[in-house]
Specification:
The complex is a heterodimer of chains A (about 425) and B (about 425). Chain A is of the alpha+beta class and about 425 residues long. Chain A is built from twelve helices and 18 strands. Chain A has helices at about 20-25, 75-90, 120-130, 140-145, 165-170, 185-200, 220-225, 265-270, 300-315, 330-345, 360, 370-385, and strands spanning about 5-10, 15, 30-35, 45-50, 110-115, 135, 135-140, 180, 205-215, 255-265, 280-285, 325, 355, 385, 400-405, 410, 415-420, 425-430. With about 425 residues, chain B is α/β, with parallel strands linked by helices. Chain B folds into two domains: about 1-110 and about 150-420, 3-Layer(aba) Sandwich (Peroxisomal Thiolase, Chain A, domain 1), CATH 3.40.47; about 110-140, no CATH class. Chain B contains 13 helices and 16 strands. In chain B, helix 3 (about 110-120) runs antiparallel to helix 4 (about 130-140), helix 7 (about 180-190) packs across helix 13 (about 360-370) and helix 10 packs across helix 11. The longest helix of chain B has 16 residues, at about 65-80. The two termini of chain B are about 20 Å apart. Classes of the chains: A alpha+beta (about 425), B alpha/beta (about 425). Chains A and B meet through helix 3, strand 7, helix 4, helix 5 and strand 8 of A and strand 4, helix 3, strand 6, helix 4 and helix 5 of B.
Amino acid sequence: MTVVITGLGATTPLGLGYKDLWVGLCNGKSGINKITAFDPSGFTCQIAGQVPEFTIRDYVPKSIRKTTKLMSRDIEIAIIAANEAFKDAGIKTKAFDEEQNITINPKRTAIILGAGLISCDLVELAPSVVKGTINGKFDIRKWGTDSIETVTPLWLLKYLPNMLACHIGIIHDIQGPSNTITCAEAAGQLAIGEAAQIILRGDAEMALAGGGEAKVNPIVHLRQCLTKRATTDYNDKPQQACRPFDANAKGCVFGEAAACVILENSENAKSRNANIYAHIAGIGQSCSINAKYESLESSGKGVQYAIEAALAEAKIKPEQLDLVIPHGTGIFADDIAEAAGIRGALGSTADKVPVFPTKSMTSNCGAAAGAIDVVAACCAIKNSVIPASKNCENINKECKLNIVKEQINKKINYVLCTSYTYGGQTAAIVLKNNE
Amino acid sequence: MGIVCPLGHDIETMWDNILNCRSGMAATTIFDASTYPTKFCSEVKNYDFTKFTKNPNLYKDGNRHSKFSIGAVAGACKQAKIDVESENPNDGIDRKRLGIYLGAGEGSVDSESFFDAIVQGWDDAAGKMDWNKWVAVAFSKMHPSRELEQEPNMPAAHIAMFTGARGPVRSCLTACAASTQAIGEAFRILQSGRADVMIAGGAHSMIHPLGIMGFNRLTALSTRNNSPETASRPFTASRDGFVIGEGAAIVILETLESAKKRGVKILAEVIGYGSSSDAFRVTDMHEEARGAVAAIESALKDAKLSYKDIDYVSTHGTSTSENDSIETLALKTVFKEEAKNTPVSSIKSMMGHLIGAAGATELISCVLAIRDGVLPPTTNYNDPDPELDLDYVPNKPRKADINIAMKESFGFGGQNNVVIIRRWSE
């Protein structure tokens, strides 16, 4: 038995749906623009990847529509991606069929999602905070007596990371194992890896896995500006801002997205004649150790070990890979370190294998980032297409990777996706063509 | 095992306090909570992380729970003979086979800067935020590492730095069930052969102005301000909410083969893990304890045991009206005729609720209960809830020769996790 991917969902700056993501990636479209969610003019970085407009009520069954009041944006975009993934897999859950004509087995379905540190809505909280001031200064005692009771009672529930999985679990009636992986930018792929392990060991027959995070929030955005990870050089040229592995890379652009896959055991998928995008052939995980916690260690060892473990599990040699989708943030030093890790694991194959970074188009969507790449990899396999990269015209000589310059049309047997995060966790997944 | 918690900064101190029924609760000192609905909590006191490390600079920017986890990992690694802060570890563990799985919370907000920026950025006349003003204050006051350290993956980052772990490193946050889940998943990683040794557990502190506010608004916290020490009273008729605590608790899980090869003392055997979700409501547990029952039954099945084999249950036992009722119902549903004969207790009556770190803390108490043949009590149990009629080990520890203990944890949002351990014998 192996674990296969049978459904895709993606809510990204390139559109509401994985097909928009794929078409966007193939056409070199950038989802990065001037921030409209708030006035960014005082921020050092004023651009981000934002999801197109949507109305969340359209995605939540009528009977529980009042729960939309408890949803932060991270939760909303994850719900949209999860809906799409189930539909794409041809699985009927109670969200779609009130007649109870469902094909999901609730107790044998798991939900494992990567989620970020959800920051609160400052506009919502501000009137209460302002009530807690004396002569224009915040006073915690006044806040205690006058403000606390004015905050909406269920305030906290909007911001617990596990609420993505909680809401989605309620909407689709998922009663098996539920976990929320909080490893920032590596969370999406770690969640998919954990879900695959849950299916392999028989604790579930199906899983919704992926990640979601909305980073276009003033306080989240400020954090990335403070740590100087966000680019400040391209505010007037947002489409060119994120330049993974490029000699002119000046930093990262952050965004909001959610991406999900449906995983199931191969027998299950075959018995219901499901469309199989790919097999999870191997997963690997390790850790970068660096006293500068926001950066990848320069040796890239943590990335290397994760890739080596995933290749070993897939029982393949580096030269069998047809495509690598790296983390590629556009942070100069991190790109060099990641390239070193990839080279460390792949050896001379690293000179040849096509490498396709996505963040120049999608932006860096935190906990969704690695899951977006897995969705993209499935599309690449299905379409036998490796899209051209964007904003990587002058490859940084220290990176020495074969960044895809022009679209390649060929059958893809194996894809490696890898991700890492500030804080050090690393992940790698090898996907295999079903044919 | 290692711990930094309101009842001590090492395992034996913590256990001695529990067996003497001491409470960790007192008026809140971390911030001025004197006008909050709840003015007390269970704090880690007089803790100095620098005692546990040669390189305090590497961890000094860490949030409270990251610093707690350094002390807890130091204690656990010492007992398990794992070298820390070593360039060339000589403990028989390949670092690529040493992993971490932590149920870790977010770090506390830098509340002074946070509130100040809001106050100065808010345009009251227009009823909206002036982001230019906000960002000017925020940019000048907020500190990059203080902001980074709020990310929930940072405690795991510090532990990796401290131990050199290069195997599977993950952290999860499923509210109050997080560290039981982390230990369960670490167990699975070992079973799957992806690591030889896992550092597993939890770290959390939500004792900050926004955390306490959030729980107060949910009316989840006890407001028995005149008597903090007796405020956490699980399964009683007068229970009025949980008492929030903080800390870090770590267990070292290791394959039998690795433990034998390294010649380390085996404290207990993990034999079962079950995980489920309620899929019911955002705010409430399922009325018939559907998810809790499923998790317990799945753990029993995994351990190839019957409910009759369980000698002791370490409950989630939060002292909230809902949890204690639903949890009792779950135990009655699974344990049937044995329900009233199976001792169950909640050390949250003394420890408070360590949220993400609660499950790991309580699992440690299960290991110690097996080791010493004594069950930790549910203290403050003076007015039984007539509806809740299990054997809650009231008010004083009880001698009992037990072999198999079950730890259960249920999180806000409906994640249920159960781990079963057994006395080790060849």
